[in-house]
Amino acid sequence: MSRERTLLERISDPREDEPRTIEENTNMLANSVLKHLQKMLNTRQGFSETLPDYGLPDLVDLFHSFPTAIGIMEKAIKGTIEKYEPRLRNVRVQPVESEREILTLHFEIKADLVTSRERAGVLFETQVDSNGEVSVSL
Asked: What does the pLDDT read at residue 1?
């Protein structure tokens, strides 16, 4: 149960009315990872004093080096997740073409969600707009 939500999530919302169990809820775990990815991928490196490499580099500058920026962003996203999200293993980041949104880059993040019982595959859809804002969804 302790891996389903981060410590800060448990402090801010203790959910004392829920029964305690030793069974993990894979959906809750995936949603907790999703929240962390949204926060982490929207944080720019250098903004955390304790972890200067936490987050992504400034993406606005990368858009000027398009299409080389796609490979750079792919590696940055993958490296950040591998370093700072231990609940995901075998992280794969792939660019996805989108004809709908020309000024938005799309990536698929595929990984194994590590639980105490099993490894469940998970897919996050990620969009990076021209302002460098990242949105992540399951």
From this structure: 40
